[in-house]
Amino acid sequence: MSWFYRRMIRPALFTQDSESIHNRTLAALGKCSRSPALCSLLSSLYSAPELPVEVFGLKFPNPVGLAAGMDKHAAAVPAWAALGFGFTELGGVTWHAQPGNPAPRMFRAVADEALVNRMGFNNPGAEAMATKLREWHDSGRWPKHPVGINLGKSKITPNEKAAEDYANSFRLLRPLADFFVVNVSSPNTPNLRALQDKAALDEILAALQQINSPQPKPLLVKVAPDLSFEALDEILELITRRNLSGIVATNTTIARPETSDENLRRTYSETGGLSGRPLRARSTEIIRHIHRQTRGALPIIGVGGIFSADDAWEKIQAGASLVQIYSGLVYEGPALVGEVVRGLRAVMPR
Ligand SMILES: Cc1cc2nc3c(=O)[nH]c(=O)nc-3n(C[C@H](O)[C@H](O)[C@H](O)COP(=O)(O)O)c2cc1C
Q1: Which atom of ligand 1 is nearest to the CA of 325?
Q2: To 5 degrees, how large is the angle CA 273–CA 276–CA 281?
Q3: For residue range 235-272, what is the model confidence (pLDDT) as tens digits?
Q4: Cβ(2)–Cβ(307) under 8 Å?
Q5: Cα–Cα dist 29/43, whole Å
Q6: Which of 116, 118, 318, 323 is buried most, with the most CB atoms less than 10 Å from its CB?
């Protein structure tokens, strides 16, 4: 199936600009999500076999999830389960609705199977997200797998008020999803990554944990691949102190690979975060470091450049308990999810 997508479908899709295709795909998946018959069809084409794992108290039918940024409007919540994903991370969502950066803001580096994006948290805001999630819950079509929400900071909120901004979204959305990810690592909101600094992050985590009761929901932090190991260690110390459930490693990178290819150079000169194949090794390196430093005690969701079962297995061997995919879906198509789960099933018992 991946072969068919790469040879027949991808070339047609790639004649159009990447954000338009993204929006059309999400609209189509949104339609499928509202139709039980279409969801069953998707499921019969793409469902993945069982490979159950239990992490931070949640049961996952398989360890392969949808990464944040793909479904910022919660437009296709049931469809992700039908495509075989073992969990979904919706968002990033911010307290205030915001349009994001001007287009064009998403670029393909096809020869490297990478993407550069500077979307800037375009999203409908936490209130609209809550309404949408309530609709899915009420429709009886809520998926059986865990659903998480990626929380970002509104662009209009200064960093000094970041804790309040994250807390507002968390308070509203907390009853509506299974786990939450504090995103302080997107390169596309000015100064957001400064919130990875110890004092700023501690204030945010303290504010969130204060409202995380009764029955605390798993709370994780998502980190950038551009952090030094020393900076990462400070975050690990905070995560332990504030009793968080895990870490998502990693977001996109501001680094660029060396290349002599003119087309790639042009794409890489765009401002934004790079994802896809060139991110794979660095993200695995970060996962390995976190696993070593925490002696395997902190659950890690590994993300960055997963295009095959081998890539996912590399992240799991480095210490990840769960993995996520974004760019791999763009380049390999939806059959990738089942392929990765089947590949992992073949190696995991060993
Ligand atoms: C267009 C686009 C939008 C993204 N938006 C978000 C976001 O809102 N929040 C977030 O934490 N990560 C976001 N990401 C990062 C992905 O979740 C993921 O960490 C990154 O793309 C690396 O995985 P990949 O190589 O499989 O794409 C986005 C990525 C892309 C390509």
Answers
A1: 26
A2: 100
A3: 999 999 999 999 999 999 999 999 999 999 999 999 99
A4: no
A5: 12
A6: 323
φ and ψ at residue 93, rounded to 5 degrees? -120, 145
Q: Which of 240, 268, 304 is nearest to 109 (CA)?
A: 268
Phi–psi pair at 69, nearest 5 degrees:
105, -20
- Cβ pair 198, 239 in contact under 8 A: no
Residue nearest to atom 23 of ligand 1 (CA): 304
Ligand 1 pocket test, candidate residues 98, 275, 340, most atoms within 8 A of CB: 275
Q: What is the pLDDT of residues 276-317, one digit of tens each?
A: 999 999 999 999 999 999 999 999 999 999 999 999 999 999
196 band by pLDDT with thresholds 50, 70 and 90: confident
Catalytic residue among 33, 154, 169, 186: 186
Residues 96 and 259 sit within 8 Å (Cβ to Cβ): no
- 67 C-alpha to ligand 1 centroid (Å): 6
> Tell me, what's the pLDDT at 293?
98
Q: pTM for the whole thing?
A: 0.98
**Cβ of residue 328 lying under 6 Å from some atom of ligand 1:** yes
Q: How many angstroms is it from 303 CA to the middle of ligand 1?
A: 9
